[in-house]
Specification:
This protein is α+β, with helices and mostly antiparallel strands. It contains 2 helices and 4 strands.
């Protein structure tokens, strides 16, 4: 009889632990929420792809970029410097990207103009 009480106590303990850890796991899940910095990093990659010499591309610091957000759509405006034929060229850019979820962005539009 005493053995049955111990088994019952162990079963209740295991059940409580599984319930508590299950609740803790669910509450620890991170929301799939994009940030302006995530958009900035994606936009840098998009702009770099359009440069003649991507390895010679220099972006401003993050806080110098203008980032506007409308839901999951981000409009990023900034400038970039790159080397082209041994000359430094400055370009302004406006890139619109949309967050699709799961850390994935998609470019909507890209506009590059000579820096004045």
């Amino acid at each position: 009889m005493r053995c049955k009480k111990w088994i019952a106590l162990i079963m209740v303990s295991v059940l409580m632990i599984s319930v508590l850890t299950g609740c803790a796991t669910r509450s620890a899940k991170v929301k799939d929420e994009p940030t302006e910095f995530m958009a900035w990093q994606f936009v840098q990659a998009v702009v770099k792809q359009r440069m003649a010499r991507p390895n010679n591309t220099v972006f401003p610091r993050y806080n110098y970029a203008t980032i506007e957000r409308d839901g999951n759509t981000f409009t990023v405006k900034a400038y970039v410097h790159t080397r082209d034929n041994d000359e430094t060229v400055g370009l302004d850019f406006t890139v619109v990207v949309k967050y699709l979820g799961n850390d994935v962005f998609d470019e909507v539009s890209v506009e590059l103009t000579p820096h004045e």
